[in-house]
Amino acid sequence: MSERAGQLARVIAAVWRISLAEAIAYRVSMLMWVLTTTFPLVSLALWSGLAAGGPIGDYARPDFVAYFVAAFLIRQFTASWVVWELSGQIRSGDLNTLLMRPMSPMIYHAIQNLAALPIRCALALPIGVVVLVLAGGLAWPSPGSLALLGLSLALAWLLNLAVHVAIGCLAFWVTESTALFEVWLGLYLVLSGAAVPTSLYPAGLAEVVRALPFHASLGFPVELAIGRATGAAATHGLLLQALWVAAFGSLAAVLWRRGVRAYEGVGT
After folding, report:
1. Who has greater pLDDT, 114 or 181?
2. H or E element: which one contains 264?
3. How many CB atoms within 10 Å of residue 268?
4. % helix / strand / coil in the chain, to the nearest 5?
5. Is residue 243's pLDDT more than 70?
6. What is the distance of C-alpha 185 from the center of its chain?
7. Phi, psi (degrees; rounded to nearest 5) at 59
8. Can you tell me the distance from the alpha carbon of 201 to that of 207, in angstroms, rounded to the nearest whole number?
9. CB 133 within 8 A of CB 55
């Protein structure tokens, strides 16, 4: 068992090095990808302009700056793109190669995503700094909340990964699973807090929106980062994140197992 574990560790390390090298080699493409996720900064321009005449709800102009800059950066920390790669591999047959490797394709894709995160963050941080210099102000989390923020970011990343895998696995049965992801992405932009802080929705609607996985994947970590989720609210948000991770993780696992069985059955 120890020899097998050692072999797996060496394979994981090799995949990490290759994935990191690819991310560095394609840093221009990575920068373009980062720039396509600047929607929170577009929202910042809109809401900070609206707040110039006075606070909107409990958000003044500096609060909008803090919120949307944090949203932009946190989206880089929690990004995933497995749905496009996995669906393409299933349709093209390249998944056969991954299935023959000594590690699960799911581990392979997770490592690929993680290896690219340092490059994404290195490219995104200067953009965030420039926005802060131009707009001013960011409320940083207290040292005591940094551990909670780290846990929340990990859960948000796992949630996004599980969603990507679950939708990507639909390519075992449908031709364009990525089209279904575009629907998810549209809902994400509206309901996650990328366009507007979810607490600014009307009271009844806000409670529903803040219970959805979209808010758990972005809005809650942002509120935790800028100090708007503390105490019981922070605990509740973390538990809700864990619940959605378990739900989508279980769904992704079921779809993957059934999809691979169908895929291998066709290939034999």
Report:
1. 181
2. helix 231-267
3. 4
4. 80, 0, 20
5. yes
6. 11
7. -115, 115
8. 9
9. no
* Residues composing the chain: 268
Give the pLDDT band of residue 81 (cuts 50, 70, 90): confident
The closest of 196, 233, 198, 231 to 212, measured between CA atoms, is: 198
Query: Residue 103 — φ and ψ, nearest 5°?
Result: -145, 155
> Residue 203: its pLDDT value, please?
85
Detail the DSSP E strand segments found in the chain: none
Give the tens place of pLDDT for each residue, 204-222: 899 999 999 999 999 999 9
Residue 25 has pLDDT above 90, yes or no: no
Rounded CA separation 37/46 (Å): 16
Q: How far apart are CA 204 and CA 258, in angstroms?
A: 39
d(CA 62, CA 83) in angstroms, rounded, equals 36
Q: Record the tokens describing residue 72, joined without a space.
A: 């932009």
Q: How far is Cα 214 from Cα 244, in angstroms, rounded to an integer?
A: 10
Tokens 């802080």 appear where?
197
Q: Are 216 and 159 in contact (CB under 8 A)?
A: yes
| 89 in Cβ contact with 101 (< 8 Å) | no
Q: Tell me, what's the pLDDT at 15? A: 53
Residues paired with residue 56 on neighbouring β-strands, in sequence order = 59
48 in Cβ contact with 141 (< 8 Å):
no
As a dihedral over the C-alpha atoms of residue 83, residue 88, residue 93, residue 98, rounded to 10 degrees, the angle is -40
Enter the pTM of the model.
0.82
